[in-house]
Amino acid sequence: MTIESTHRAQCRAPCGRLVDDDHVEDSDGFGMIVRVDRYSCGCRYIRRDYHDGSIGERSIRHDGKVLPTELRPEQGS
Ligand SMILES: [Zn+2]
């Protein structure tokens, strides 16, 4: 397991605001990557890259509303 943490300023949150973001990437070393963004306004964004190349995303707005989740094939192939 590898966990990398980055602090980024002026990121676009799911609600559309420009806020600071704590970005964490967690990899199992076998192709599965989980990325979590915690925005200072309270929004969160979670993205999972699966071993088969598919991607799952979820955005949770600071007011608690879960924005639509989609599972889509890898882009650009
Ligand atoms: Zn927000």
What features would you describe in this structure?
With 77 residues, the chain is mostly beta strands. It has one domain. It has no helices and 6 strands. The protein has strands at 2-12, 18-27, 33-39, 44-49, 55-60, 66-72. It has a 6-stranded antiparallel sheet with strand order 1-2-3-4-5-6, with no helix packed on it. A hairpin with a 5-residue loop joins strand 5 (55-60) and strand 6. It starts with a strand and ends in a 5-residue tail after the last strand. The structure holds zinc ion. Zinc ion binds next to loops. Zinc ion (ZN) binds at residues 13, 15, 17, 39, 41-43, 61-62.
Q: Main attributes?
A:
binds zinc ion; 0% helix; single chain; 77 residues; 6-stranded antiparallel β-sheet
What is the rounded Rg?
13 Å
- Domains counted in the coordinates: how many? 1
Structural class: mainly beta
Mean pLDDT equals 89
Give the strand content: over 45%
Figure out the total of helices. 0
Distance between the termini: 27 Å
Please state the overall shape, judged from the principal axes of the Cα atoms: flat
Question: What is the topology, as strand order, of the major beta sheet?
Answer: 1-2-3-4-5-6
Write a short abstract of this structure.
With 77 residues, the protein is an all-beta fold. Helices cover 0% and strands 61% of the residues. The protein has one domain (2-72).
Topology (elements, then pairings):
Elements: E1 2-12, E2 18-27, E3 33-39, E4 44-49, E5 55-60, E6 66-72
Antiparallel strand pairs: 1-2, 2-3, 3-4, 4-5, 5-6
The protein binds zinc ion.
